[in-house]
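Before relying on records like the one below, remember that each one covers exactly one chain. Contacts with other chains, cofactors or solvent are not represented anywhere in the record.
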Amino acid sequence: MQEQLKEQATTKPKEEQKNGGNFGSEDKIMPKIRLSRTSKGANKLRAYRVLIDDKYVGVIHRNQTKEFEVDFGEHTIQCTIDWERSNHITVDIQDDLEELEVIAKGVFESSIRAIFPFDGRDKYLTLSKKSK
């Protein structure tokens, strides 16, 4: 009898085991940042790294849209590829979704930039809020 009580005390309830130990987590809505990447740009076959609050959270490929879960509040987003990067954009998440878009320079602009790379490392990719 005591062994059964010990086992019940150390095991999680079945509902908690089913959803990975986060009992009631299905009720909590996590806000998201939705990032879209266009087809424009010279790096069509390469992925951009996505940073939220200076932490790597994943990559985004050409013509792809991805969602990243975040907490409510202020967050800073940036995309990078090699030594090039986008501008930082700060969003204050009050709703459940914030939509952003990353655009790279075109092939001609990239060629000129390879010859004259003097406009700053944060000008190759442009990160902006999507118009609603």
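The chain has a mean pLDDT of 76.
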